[in-house]
Amino acid sequence: MVKWKLDECFKAAILKRIAALGLAAMTISSFAGSASAESLLEKIKNGETIRLGFTNEPPSAYPGANNEPLGLVNVMTLDVLKKMGTTEIEPVVTDWGSLVPGLQAGRFDIITGGMWIKPERCRNVLFSEPIASSNDSMIVPKGNPEALHSLQDAQKKGLTLAIMTGTTAVEQAKKLGFPDDKVMQVAGPPEVVQAVKAGRAAAGSLYSLNATTLAEQDPSIEVADPYTPPGPNEHPAIAFPLSEQAAVDAFNAVLKDYIGSDEMMASVGKYGYTKRDLPDGSKTADLCKG
Asked: Which parts of the chain are beta strand (E)?
């Protein structure tokens, strides 16, 4: 009888120990789950590292030495994030077509590529309020030998147009009647320029500031002038994951006083951004409706 009681006591002790370990494991698991669920806004307020996703698209956003985030959209974002609580940044450089999938996959926290607000994009990301109002321009060889002043001109002449993959210009070109074999989709602005310089494309469609900057750097190309854009002005913004509305609201609250301020204009002026590029009053909610 005594032996039985000792065995039972031993078993009870073992079960108690197992229960304690199980509780500890549950506590650790719960803590880990809580930590992993930390919101983007909490990370910013806590001064943690925020990953910026962008492509090589000067002057909007591009990598410098050691991938330093340069360009007008990056500096705007850095200024606003600093006011919100963090200066810790990790740049993640990728091609344009991988920006939205990368954000959705958690490769970075924010897209700073100056992406235009479009209804189809609003289904996949949350946008800040607009940071500019602008449109596309056309890059052509020096002297504009084909006399191109619109996308329609290139389409009517059966010429090839170089466009960045994932941009709205791809859809615009197809709506204008460009056949697939006349729409050369490339990774970024440098590739657009190279396609034009090599004669693989007669022209390239780029965001106006990008086109102007690249033409100033390369005497073999120019911006078509005059030029009729394919549609009304577009509105670039900063993009966030769909689950981070609180971060977007907080970002917008700071952005409201920052846009057009002397501080902002000093930061972006060296990238060619002027008061003519400021937002025109359009709201993201309306732009997302189309």
From this structure: 50-54, 62-63, 69-70, 89-93, 110-116, 126-127, 136-141, 161-164, 183-186, 203-207, 221-223, 236-240
CA separation for the pair 222, 152 (Å, rounded): 18
User: Using CA atoms, how far apart are residues 64 and 68, in angstroms rounded to an integer?
Assistant: 5
**For the segment 143-187, what is each residue's pLDDT rounded down to a tens digit?**
999 999 999 999 999 999 999 998 989 999 999 999 999 999 999
Q: What is the pTM of this model?
A: 0.77
The structure tokens 């997302």 sit at 288
The domain 136-223 is classified under which CATH number: 3.40.47.10, 3.20.20.80, 3.40.190.10, 1.10.8.60? Answer: 3.40.190.10
Sign of CA pseudo-dihedral 238, 226, 223, 274: negative
Whether the Cβ atoms of residue 134 and residue 186 lie closer than 8 Å to each other: no
Q: What is the CATH number of domain 41-133+234-285?
A: 3.40.190.10
pLDDT tens readout for residues 73-132: 999 999 999 999 999 999 999 999 999 999 999 999 999 989 999 999 999 999 999 999
The answer to whether the 41-133+234-285 and 136-223 domains have the same CATH topology is: yes
Task: For the chain, give every domain's residue range.
Answer: 41-133+234-285, 136-223
